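Re: that backbone. Tokens:
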């Protein structure tokens, strides 16, 4: 086999080729012929290229998946804190933290294990045997026989018939009425016509001369030569790109950013506590439990629980009410953060069927006579040509026509559509015209007009009009007729000449009934829709116009232009582009990656194998329930129907969950940071520990229990109008400001305690100081919970929600626990009455400060 033959195995189906090579060029490149290979040649190529199977996929073991979960920085920090807590005999804290680590790792491993199983579904789409032409010797005649698909090699000549699965990537040598079902590859529900003539441009799965592994023959027959096998097929390449390591999603990036902020604080806190106590108070390692307790106090231990609860509640509600299945829980947060949604138009913005737009006469005006002739042609072609299924355009004509008028014609004969002629003919008897037949010809404008008796200028004018309609996104068919004497002999394509042109019928895509409302709702939520399609740009722009999707002058980008842009240029162009036309799978993946590189959170809706690379690249991959099995396995979210309304509901649920998670982090981290700062200051000012380790952990336990209410809170409508994205820098600025305010309140409490206790040795009363600060901490945390809830106003709602009740319960615990027997076990004691009066004044000033800062930072709270 020559080097050029080897190169063609990978080069022929590539989307970058401007045209598909001719049959002769293909056979020369493959060093093959129409009679196929000899057995010796096939054996040599099998040894060179390997068996025709999908690439091996090694599933990762469960232990390795669990270890991978520990790579998450927040999980690693929790694990370290749990081990340190166990080392200093804080067994309760250690058990809680280590349990959270185990649950987090198990959930992550389970999700990755489900993704690994998708390979089995992919292999089920590949054929088992194939009919191949092989020769025993070079001069021997070829013999057709069944062989295992694994033994196919480039250069083999195979035969395809109805019901066959295409066993490899092939180039057609001959085809007769061949239509191929490519739903497994492209998601298209209708069979696609294929032909051997090299007249169309290449790109993705579009070239009619090429058939790809994973598709199936719907009708007709063909002889083809194998051009790619095994890992070199488009089918395997699409899966290989989707099987690559996935980049971090919006949720992962947010959690990692927050985690590293916490890591810096937590790594800094224990050494500071130890050094301050050693330098100023001559206390050494006996303060280690207190230092660990302070670090644990800064950690949002409930983050895995809150996140899982928020996302699980949203996912369950989506499944019950809208049939939306969230397969990867963090994807629900990503949906709430989505600001760009990429989708195809067919089946999403439009239905999988065309509808009649207009019937135009030769003068360009509406003419019902044209529709009548076209519908009569459609009816009798369906009745007489014995077609396997009615043509979608013919169905649209029959839906628009008057049934009584159709029944007035009698059918005589039909010449079905031929991809080479690009037209079809029906012969009918016209009422009132005895002894004559009427040939009704319908097909592509240029081929029909070539057969009409027209002057050159008139033909050029009509072709220009048809081109204008096509550029406007319409599909155009020309209709012509001819009268001839009645006869008994068969009609042939030779009779299709000297026709009288009657006009054009134009078609547009039927819009999805819910698309317009869903797009309006998504726009109101700050989600921009990008249309990625393999269709003509005019067709996509037409659909966008009909659905009120704004397409600016520079808002259309075709695959040819995309190929000429580098990644940086594409990121800039993608931001201003609405329609991406003539897209192959690699284009869709590049566009999704470019949008992410531009700072957008990207959702991608796809249903075919060609969508797998883009589904993998996007922050959240979405697939309908009727998508290819391997696509459903790889999708993060599965819709009951391919309906944008379901995505709108999913985005809303994601923003509710994401808003609650963000609120929890803002409230918890700002409060915890204030406490840590106050504890560090107290360690320098006091001759004793400001709070016992057991009291710190008890306080954390109370606050953690109250924080569960955030998972059940309801976000106000205004927070749903824009993507919910947790930005670490904004969070750091927020928690620093409110944390310092909280620390000021704690330091003011020190002064209150000094006034309340009186005497020069007042601060020596450790139990009273511990009790006073314990109470103040819980009350300030309750205030923070109530006042910093996602931008809620004081007058909003008369009935307290879950967070309001939790704050009230936290207040009660702070006031009553020092008076109770459990409080005595923790070293707490009742406080003097004066303290409560002074504490009320401090809390009032603190609440005023919170309201003032919240008003200034209000935008970040929404």
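Recovered sequence:
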């Amino acid at each position: 086999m020559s080097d050029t033959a080897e190169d063609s195995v990978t080069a022929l189906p590539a989307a970058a080729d401007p045209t598909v090579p001719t049959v002769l060029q293909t056979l020369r490149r493959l060093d093959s012929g129409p009679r196929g290979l000899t057995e010796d040649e096939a054996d040599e190529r099998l040894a060179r290229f390997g068996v025709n199977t999908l690439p091996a996929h090694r599933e990762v073991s469960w232990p390795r998946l669990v270890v991978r979960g520990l790579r998450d920085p927040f999980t690693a920090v929790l694990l370290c804190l749990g081990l340190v807590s166990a080392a200093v005999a804080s067994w309760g804290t250690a058990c809680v933290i280590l349990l959270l680590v185990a649950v987090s790792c198990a959930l992550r491993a389970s999700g990755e294990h489900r993704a690994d199983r998708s390979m089995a579904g992919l292999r089920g789409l590949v054929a088992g045997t194939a009919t191949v032409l092989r020769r025993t010797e070079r001069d021997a005649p070829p013999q057709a026989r069944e062989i295992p698909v694994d033994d196919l090699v480039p250069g083999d000549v195979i035969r395809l018939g109805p019901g066959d699965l295409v066993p490899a990537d092939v180039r057609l040598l001959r085809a007769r009425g061949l239509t191929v079902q490519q739903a497994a590859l492209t998601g298209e529900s209708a069979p696609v016509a294929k032909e051997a003539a090299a007249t169309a441009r290449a790109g993705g799965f579009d070239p009619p001369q090429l058939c790809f592994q994973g598709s199936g023959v719907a009708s007709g027959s063909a002889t083809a030569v194998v051009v790619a096998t095994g890992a070199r097929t488009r089918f395997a390449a699409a899966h290989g790109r989707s099987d690559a390591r996935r980049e971090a999603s919006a949720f992962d990036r947010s959690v990692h950013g927050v985690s590293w902020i916490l890591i810096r604080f937590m790594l800094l806190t224990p050494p500071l506590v130890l050094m301050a106590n050693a330098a100023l108070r001559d206390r050494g390692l006996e303060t280690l439990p207190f230092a660990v307790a302070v670090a644990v106090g800064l950690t949002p231990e409930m983050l895995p629980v809150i996140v899982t609860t928020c996302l699980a509640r949203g996912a369950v509600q989506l499944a019950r009410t809208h049939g939306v299945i969230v397969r990867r829980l963090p994807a629900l947060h990503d949906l709430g953060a989505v600001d760009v949604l990429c989708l195809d138009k067919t089946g999403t913005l439009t239905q999988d069927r065309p509808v009649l737009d207009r019937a135009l006469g030769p003068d360009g005006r509406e003419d019902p006579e044209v529709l009548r002739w076209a519908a009569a042609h459609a009816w009798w072609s369906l009745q007489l040509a014995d077609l396997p299924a009615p043509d979608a355009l013919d169905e649209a004509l029959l839906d628009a026509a008057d049934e009584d008028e159709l029944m007035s014609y009698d059918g005589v004969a039909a010449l079905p559509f031929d991809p080479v002629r690009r037209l079809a003919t029906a012969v009918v008897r016209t009422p009132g015209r005895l002894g004559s037949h009427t040939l009704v010809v319908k097909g592509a404008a240029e081929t029909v007009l070539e057969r009409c008796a027209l002057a050159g200028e008139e033909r050029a004018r009509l072709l220009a009009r048809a081109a204008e309609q096509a550029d406007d996104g319409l599909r155009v068919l020309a209709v012509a007729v001819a009268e001839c004497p009645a006869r008994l002999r068969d009609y042939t394509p030779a009779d299709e000449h000297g026709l009288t042109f009657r006009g054009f019928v134009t078609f547009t895509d039927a819009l999805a009934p819910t698309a317009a409302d869903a797009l309006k709702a998504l726009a109101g939520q700050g989600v921009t829709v990008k249309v990625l399609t393999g269709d003509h740009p005019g067709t996509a722009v037409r659909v966008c116009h009909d659905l009120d999707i704004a397409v600016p002058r520079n808002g259309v980008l075709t695959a040819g232009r995309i190929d000429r842009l580098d990644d940086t240029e594409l990121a800039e162009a993608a931001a201003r582009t609405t329609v991406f036309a003539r897209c192959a799978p690699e284009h869709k993946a590049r566009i999704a990656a470019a949008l992410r590189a531009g700072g957008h959170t990207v959702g991608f809706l796809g249903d075919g194998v060609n969508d797998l690379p883009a589904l993998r690249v996007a922050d959240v991959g979405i697939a309908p329930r009727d998508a290819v099995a391997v696509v459903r396995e790889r999708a993060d979210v599965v819709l009951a129907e391919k309906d944008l309304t379901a995505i709108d509901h999913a985005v809303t649920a994601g923003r509710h969950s994401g808003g609650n998670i963000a609120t929890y982090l803002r409230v918890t981290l700002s409060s915890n940071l204030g406490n840590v700062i106050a504890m560090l200051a107290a360690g320098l000012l006091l001759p004793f520990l400001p709070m016992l380790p057991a009291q710190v952990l008890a306080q954390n336990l109370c606050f953690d229990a109250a924080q569960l209410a955030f998972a059940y809170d309801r976000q106000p409508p205004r927070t749903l109008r824009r993507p919910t994205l947790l930005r670490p820098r904004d969070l750091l600025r927020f928690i620093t400001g409110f944390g310092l305010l909280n620390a000021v309140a704690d330091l003011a409490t020190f002064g209150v305690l000094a006034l309340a206790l009186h005497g020069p040795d007042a601060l020596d009363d450790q139990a009273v100081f511990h009790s006073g600060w314990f109470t103040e901490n819980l009350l300030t945390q309750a205030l923070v919970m109530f006042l910093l809830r996602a931008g809620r106003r004081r007058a909003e709602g008369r009935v307290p929600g879950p967070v309001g009740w939790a704050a009230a319960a936290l207040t009660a615990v702070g006031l009553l626990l020092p008076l109770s027997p459990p409080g005595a076990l923790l070293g707490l004691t009742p406080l003097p009455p004066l303290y409560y009066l002074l504490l009320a004044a401090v809390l009032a000033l603190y609440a005023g400060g919170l309201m003032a800062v919240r008003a200034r930072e209000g935008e970040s709270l929404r």
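The chain has a mean pLDDT of 79. Residues 589 and 614 are 4 Å apart (CA to CA).
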